[in-house]
Design goal:
The protein is α/β, with parallel strands linked by helices and 555 residues long. It has 21 helices and 14 strands. It has a five-stranded parallel beta sheet with strand order 6-5-4-10-11, sandwiched between helices. Strands 1-3-2 form a three-stranded antiparallel beta sheet.
Length: 555
């Protein structure tokens, strides 16, 4: 019996009690939940439904809990119900009901853990969006791992998600990039405000190989060639490195398109129609202070140039016009000041900034080698890049390490720890369970032990304390996935895999032998434990997939 099934049983018992006592069914919720008690001695699951309903129907909570317990005690699969405190229900399942979960998980396969909790929501999820003037640095890599994991979680809970990379190919940073390429091609030092690193010389050389005529152009014309070709080459490299990291976007959106299609004027006109624009000192301003911003924002300067914020407005409007109900943007720690102005901008468009716009801020990441920070890239000079990180610890460890922590917390990643093949390496600890469960299944097949038909499965035999502990851990997975998606916290999945599933499986493996010894006859207990072993493999594989990490069959 899954937690969701037990919750339905609890609600059905409440319906029966209300009918018996003539209570108003309108007070009953459409659904309820059961939770694992903190102390395992208090039972398998707990419900607070009696406490929630007591005031609504005017029945003392303990009296209502007693009636619910009597009704629940007659339900199939419920072994016992105890009342604790003012009216908590502590529920124990019989072994057969608890053990059936192994069959449910194995038969569900990749679908186990998925739900329709967020069905009907259209979400645009923008992350990374590094400027194409250099590589994806370690801060952007964090968003690549977390953002991709979040997109998988949102889809697993039924949301219609579009992932997006905002390609900033307009503005002063691109001009500085082009000037740096031109200087490198001429053998000159980078401009004072330009970009350094070996990659600049590499790109300049590649541009000249593609466009040899650039050598004969004047500086202005040559700079334009380096701008167009250099940005294209840099962005191809960014896309390639992200693809190698397992991250692909549904949409790569060019900022330049906003300008070329006149979308900044469209946004300006929309905001003017809403009554939030004014002119001052020759510039066009958005009155964001009306919605909590610390100052009004310039959209168009007195010289006619657009500001970056004007492009932000046009880009937000474009997403909303494409039918996305919720716009989620992931930004680095240095963008914390953007929240107020962006929320105010959404309100100026007539949106609900708490409903339609969500901004997530990620904190800094430091890589440590031999206890000291890694500060320099072999190729990119002043930053540690995605390719440096992957080269140091590999894709799986990199993705897991970055997704394992709450994104609003700074993290230090010890290169030595994350490359160890030991249990103190978190990704190894979890992947080892994936490999061990696969190995057990292979070894079982070699000795003629197969799970057998589901109808012959004897779940009541899974009555060992460690079997029950593992079953309860596996049962939590759907709720963990739903909560991680709703709270935008993929790290909950990683911690669950480590602290609940992997830890429980290791204890189960040490105490409950799956394979027969020597010439020992294969029994129904062996088969039942194999079902549980395979269910664990399913949950580990599904959880790692949500993090974009592989579930190896051998290690």
């Amino acid at each position: 019996m899954t937690p969701a099934e037990l919750a339905s049983v609890v609600l059905a018992a409440a319906h029966a009690v209300f009918d018996q006592r003539g209570l108003d069914r309108a007070a009953l919720p459409e659904r309820t939940v059961v939770e694992r008690p903190r102390n395992p001695e208090h039972g398998d699951y707990a419900s607070t439904l009696a406490l929630q309903l007591s005031k609504k129907v005017g029945v003392p909570p303990r009296e209502l809990a007693t009636a619910l317990a009597d009704e629940l005690g007659r339900a199939a699969g419920v072994k016992s119900v105890e009342i604790a405190g003012p009216g908590f229900l502590n529920i124990r399942l019989d072994a057969a009901a608890a053990g059936q979960l192994a069959r449910v998980i194995v038969e569900a396969g990749a679908e186990y853990g998925r739900s329709d909790r967020l069905a009907g929501e259209r979400i645009n999820l923008e992350f990374v969006s590094a400027n194409p003037t250099g590589p994806v640095h370690i801060g952007g890599v964090r968003w690549a791992a977390v953002g991709d994991a979040l997109s998988r979680l949102l889809r697993a809970t039924g949301a219609d998600v579009g992932t997006e990379y905002y390609f900033n190919d307009a503005g002063s940073q691109i001009d500085r990039f082009a000037r740096s390429l031109l200087a490198a091609a001429k053998g000159e030092a980078a401009p004072e405000d330009g970009y350094g690193g070996a990659y600049i010389a590499e790109i300049a050389t590649e541009v000249q190989a593609r466009r040899p005529e650039v050598r004969s152009l004047d500086d202005d014309a040559a700079q334009e060639v380096f701008r167009v070709e250099g940005v294209a080459l840099m962005f191809d490299e960014i896309r390639s490195s992200l693809r190698d990291f397992g991250v692909e976007f549904d949409t790569y959106f060019n900022e330049k398109d906003l300008h070329d299609r006149g979308e900044l004027d469209l946004a300006l006109n929309r905001l003017r129609a809403q009554g939030h624009l004014y002119e001052s000192e020759g510039a066009t301003w958005l009155r964001t202070t009306d919605f909590g911003d610390d100052k009004d924002r310039v959209l168009r300067k007195s010289n006619g140039e657009w500001t970056y914020f004007a492009a932000d407005c046009a880009y937000y409007l474009d997403k909303r016009e494409r039918g996305f109900e919720r716009v989620v943007i992931m930004l680095g720690a240095d963008h914390h000041g953007y929240i107020g102005r962006m929320k105010a901008m959404a309100a100026c468009f007539g949106d609900d900034p708490e409903r339609n716009l969500e901004i997530l801020i990620g904190q800094l990441v430091s890589l440590l080698r031999d206890g000291a920070p890694m500060r320099m890239s072999k190729r990119f000079g002043t930053v540690v890049s995605l390719e440096d990180f992957v080269e140091a610890i590999g894709v799986d460890a990199a993705r897991y390490a970055l997704a394992r922590y709450s994104s609003d917390s700074p993290i230090d990643i010890d290169i030595e720890l994350w490359t160890r093949a030991t249990r103190d390496n978190p990704v190894y600890y979890v992947q080892y369970v994936a490999a061990r469960t696969a190995g057990v299944a292979r070894n079982a097949a070699e000795v003629g032990l197969v799970p057998g038909d589901a109808d012959a499965f004897r779940p009541e035999l899974l009555d060992h304390e460690k079997e029950n502990e593992l079953l309860k851990a596996l049962a939590e997975f759907p709720a963990v996935v739903a909560t991680a998606a709703e709270l935008r916290e993929p790290h909950r999945v990683a911690r669950y895999l480590e602290e609940s599933v992997a830890a429980s499986y290791h204890r189960f493996y040490d105490n409950c032998r799956v394979l027969p010894l020597g010439d020992e006859e294969v029994t129904d207990l062996h088969r039942a434990r194999l079902w549980l072993n395979n269910a664990t493999r399913t949950v580990i594989a599904n959880g790692l997939h949500l993090l974009g990490v592989s579930a190896p069959e051998r290690m």
